[in-house]
Amino acid sequence: MFGKDVLEEVLGVALARGGSFADLFIEERQSTLIALEDSRVERVQIGRDCGAGVRVLSGESTAYAYTNDLSREGLLQAAATAARALNLGREAVVRTLRPETAPQPVEEEVALEEKVAAVTAADKAARAVGGAVRQVLVGYGDVAQRVTVANSEGVFVEEERHRLRFTVNVVAAEGDVIQTGFEAVGSTAPFAATFKERPPEEVAEIAAQRAVALVHAPPAPAGRMTVVLAGEAGGTMVHEACGHGLEADLVQKGLSVYGGKKGALVAAETVTVIDDATLPGKYGSYRFDDEGVKARPVVLIEDGYLKDYLYDRRSSGRDGRESNGHGRRESYQHKPIPRMANTYIKPGKTPPEEIIREVKKGFLVKKMGGGQVNTTNGDFVFEVAEGYLIEDGDVGPLVRGATLTGNGPEVLREVTLVGRDLGFTVGTCGKDGQGVPVSDAQPTLLVPELIVGGTGRR
């Protein structure tokens, strides 16, 4: 995109008035969005966006400027704006850039008609499930992003990233009972490979079957119960109730229950939590983060002991260490902050069916819904999108309207069995007004007691 001589010139201007560090993030983004409702494609949006952000650091001060003018003059003007914001009056040194390019993803030309066909096929499959289906919403989105990162310490990285997300939301109703079913697929793998593994029709059928089944399900009972979190439930629990608390900026601000606990026992000794942006094909994966740091697996909790946090450059500097590759940003208009990528609990050795057989009376969570978490103390409330009663070691009836209430760190400490399976979910994680693609996962887990909310009787 740009030669290193231009990038070095821009970084030199950024540091011309002082500062300890400067970096430049350049982005070109091509995206496609397709939305279907009432069996009609309501929106097809194809867009291109490009721009650059220049950041200058000095101690705890940050200056940031961005522009969508990717000419040499536009970049220099953004750099000068960031420099003037600090205006420290002394020029810093920019090291010679050392180019490094990530392996490029597989190139794949996919016609718009193929993408529309995937959306319409999902609609037909969902409606074929049953007469209780009232509404089907299908969404398709893909992004091809080319990123260049250069900084005053000599880092010069170029990477292409391709992502795809496909969602189906089904509303089913009978009488005055209305229920929804949702299923999503997200990947950095090519279009054909993604839908070979999870065909659009399969995704739609799962969402529709869930919605229709919930219409006929009785209300969930309430009370303290033994809970089995199935691997299929995905890693919502570990992401929300644990992962955010392990982001270094929240720890440093005193907003994490895990602050000051490095080296301490914070989970059951059967629990290991990892964030790995290098996992092939996963929705949160990347080769380099948005500060040009090479991605690597980060063991956050190992055999119950807190080992590490997720760092970007700013937060790692405060702790006198190097970043571990989790500086991420939504776009060139945003500063990087510590974020999760692919966060999961490492599988154990117990077959999932054996875990269920351990429970005389309890509750099986097969799919998690949305929820709220307080990262300061770890308290959470989650909706259950699909849950079943467990009776004498067997999976019993489906129930609707359940919630889970508890404390994330306490749940991790109380886990008694860890399954050998692993199920991923995908999403867009929000923090500080920014959204980034993530995936999270867990094996089947046995938690001796959680508060299950509901309106039924047991």
Annotation keywords:
458 residues, alpha+beta, seven-stranded mixed beta sheet, globular
Task: Please describe what this structure looks like.
- Helix content is 21%, strand content 41%.
- It contains 10 helices and 22 strands.
- It has helices spanning 4-14, 72-86, 112-127, 191-197, 200-216, 236-243, 248-252, 313-318, 352-357, 408-414, and strands at residues 21-37, 40-58, 61-67, 98-101, 133-151, 155-174, 177-187, 223-229, 273-276, 297-302, 305-306, 327-328, 337-338, 342-345, 361-373, 379-391, 394-399, 403-407, 417-418, 423-431, 434-442, 445-453.
- The strands form 4 sheets. Strands 1, 2, 3, 4, 5, 6 and 7 form a 7-stranded mixed sheet that branches. It has a 6-stranded mixed sheet with strand order 11-10-9-14-21-20, with helices on one face. The chain has a 5-stranded mixed beta barrel with strand order 8-15-16-18-22.
- A hairpin with an 8-residue loop joins strand 12 and strand 13 (337-338).
- Helix 1 (4-14) runs parallel beside helix 2 (72-86).
- It is globular, with a radius of gyration of 24 Å.
- It starts with a helix and ends in a 5-residue tail after the last strand.
- The mean pLDDT is 94.
